[in-house]
Design a protein that fits this description.
By secondary structure, the chain is α+β, with helices and mostly antiparallel strands. It has one domain: CBS-domain (Roll). About 35% of the residues lie in helices and about 20% in strands. The protein has six helices and five strands; from the N terminus they run H-E-E-H-H-E-H-E-E-H-H. The strands form two sheets. It has a three-stranded mixed β-sheet with strand order 3-4-5. It has a two-stranded antiparallel ribbon with strand order 1-2. It is globular, with a radius of gyration of 16 Å.
C-alpha cells in the first residue's frame, strides 16, 4: 500500500510570518499538535505545540512572535508514492508520530500519522510497529536522561 492511499489530504498550513497565536488558534480549532509551515508552495518547517511551549513560552516570547522564530526547520517528510512499510519503519527509527507528505517536486500534498494508519484496514500492524519504535526511551525529544 502507498502513502497516498492512507494520508490526510487538504492539510492546513501556516506561514512563517504568522504569529504563534494565530498558529495556536488553528491548532486548537483543528485539535492537532503540529502544523506544516509553508512559503511559496514549499514546505519549510513544522510547528508543534512543543515548539510553542519550549521555544516561545518558556523563553518569555509573546504571542505575536513569528512562527519562523520557533518552528522546527529540520523537517522530516516522506513521498506520496512510498510504501507504508518503508514510511512506518522510518517513523519508528526517527521517533515521530506524523510526517508531512510531499510529491516528487517536494510540494506538500498531505500528512500521514500513526492514527491514520491505525484506522486504515491492512496497516494496523505497521502502525503498531512504528508506535513501538516511537515510544522507546531516548531520542531527540526525550525528557529522560540529561537535563538542559
Amino acid at each position: 500500500m502507498r502513502v497516498s492511499q492512507s494520508m490526510t489530504r487538504n492539510v492546513e498550513i501556516v506561514h512563517p510570518e504568522d504569529s504563534i497565536r494565530e498558529a495556536a488558534a488553528l491548532m486548537a480549532q483543528l485539535d492537532i499538535g503540529s502544523v506544516p509551515v509553508a512559503e511559496d508552495d514549499r514546505l519549510i518547517g513544522m510547528l508543534t505545540d512543543r515548539d510553542i511551549a519550549i521555544r516561545a513560552v518558556a523563553r518569555g516570547l509573546g504571542p505575536d512572535t513569528a512562527v519562523r522564530s520557533v518552528m522546527s526547520t529540520d523537517v522530516k517528510y516522506c513521498f506520496e508514492d512510498q510504501t507504508i512499510e518503508d514510511v512506518t519503519e522510518n517513523m519508528a527509527n526517527i521517533q515521530v508520530r506524523r510526517l508531512p507528505v510531499v510529491d516528487r517536486d517536494k510540494r506538500l500534498v498531505g500528512i500521514i500519522s500513526l492514527g491514520d494508519l491505525a484506522l486504515e484496514e491492512g496497516t494496523e500492524e505497521e502502525a503498531g510497529k512504528a508506535l513501538k519504535g516511537v515510544s522507546r526511551p531516548g531520542g531527540e525529544h526525550s525528557q529522560a536522561g540529561t537535563q538542559h
